[in-house]
Write a structure and sequence with these properties.
flat; coiled coil; cytoplasm; alpha+beta; about 20% strand; Double Stranded RNA Binding Domain; 3-stranded antiparallel sheet; 8-stranded mixed sheet; Alpha-Beta Plaits; about 350 residues; single chain; Peptide chain release factor 1; 3 domains
């Protein structure tokens, strides 16, 4: 029974409450912080569990009144409400019982890279950047550009953002993959629709303790900055290129004004990419034990098509099609796609876990 699964959470929550009021604990800041965090993580499931168990009690009490001449009808009406409440709480609790992605609360690096399609792909990479920037603002997230490489006629060959906010990764992890765009380029005189592609990678920002890098595995080169960057461009060796020799990963940064800032930013991206590889290996092992895999940031799979002539946006993972591409791109309304994706994968995870 679901109620039996909930009792250990309530017992642990109550135990933590007692511990946190113990004077010997309150004097130990490190332990206090650890226990407070654990209790905070249990807050939602404990609250839902209490409501659920109380609802079960209320249902039994009202069933006992069904044969009462005076209260029977009231009890019958109340039971309808309580049964509906019970079902809603069960769905909420099943989601809360799912194993939590350890990266969900982290900030996220969002990398957009122009793929097939040349200048048109770079232009769409710019459009996608603008849409994600608006989405970040809608969610109350802060963002900063870590590095960028502009396209020949506008847009970006590549741009990397750091998006900061609680739960940023939990929302954006579904965006990793190949985004295909179909539209008539401005330079197309015959009005023909062209197809191009942009790849998006989603990588959680990681703490230094989560990824260890041997300095001997790095080759760090400094060079003159190039491109649009103001008066300092081409006057100082501020651009930094870091090569991780074992994996061949190369990260270049020239956006900061100092070599130190560029090196720091490049190292953050390198750590995120190495962590991404580590996570993919972990998920690959887990996949053999479960049916679905979510949010790996895999760039090889085509996840979405943006068809501008039809004003259509289609997410191929859940067969979702919306005919409001213009509004979604203009206002960054990606939650109209992300919410159904979350619901879909939660339902699959609940089925896999047999909850």
């Amino acid at each position: 029974m679901l109620a039996d699964k909930l009792q250990p959470f309530l017992d642990r929550y109550d135990e933590l409450s007692r511990l946190l009021s113990d004077p010997s604990i309150t004097n130990d800041i490190a332990n206090m912080t650890k226990l407070s965090k654990e209790q905070s993580n249990l807050e939602d499931i404990a609250s839902a569990a209490k409501s659920y168990l109380q609802t079960l009690t209320d249902i039994e009490e009202n069933k006992a009144l069904l044969d009462d001449a005076e209260l029977g009808e009231l009890a019958k009406d109340e039971l309808k409400n309580l049964e509906s409440q019970k079902e809603n709480l069960e769905e909420e609790i099943k989601i809360l019982l799912l194993p939590k992605d350890p990266n969900d609360d982290k900030n996220v690096f969002l990398e957009i890279r122009a793929g097939t399609g040349g200048d048109e792909a770079a232009l769409f990479a710019g459009d996608l950047f603008n849409a994600y920037a608006r989405y970040a603002e809608l969610r109350g997230y802060k963002f900063e550009i870590v590095s960028q490489s502009e396209g020949n006629t506008g847009g970006f060959k590549e741009i990397i953002l750091l998006i900061k906010g609680k739960g940023a990764y939990s929302r954006l992890k579904f965006e990793g993959g190949t985004h295909r765009v179909q539209r008539v380029p401005e330079t197309e005189s015959q009005g023909r629709v062209h197809t191009s592609a942009v790849t998006v990678a989603i990588m959680p920002e990681v703490e230094d303790s989560e990824i260890e890098i041997n300095p001997n595995d790095l080759r760090i080169d400094v060079m003159r900055s190039s491109g649009n960057g103001g008066q300092s461009v081409n006057t100082t060796d501020s651009a930094v290129r870091i090569t991780h020799i074992p994996t061949g990963i190369v990260v270049t940064n020239q956006d900061g004004k100092s070599q130190h800032k560029n090196k720091e930013a490049a190292m953050k991206v390198l750590k995120a990419r190495l962590y991404e590889i580590q996570e993919e290996e972990r998920l690959a092992k887990e996949t053999s034990e479960r049916k679905s895999q979510v949010g790996t940031g895999d760039r090889s799979g085509r996840i979405r098509t943006y068809n501008f002539p039809q004003n259509r946006i289609s997410d191929h993972r859940i067969n979702l099609t919306l005919y409001r591409l213009d509004a979604i791109m203009a206002a960054g309304l990606f939650d109209e796609i992300i919410e159904p994706l979350i619901a879909h994968y939660q339902a699959e995870a609940i089925s896999d876990a047999d909850l």
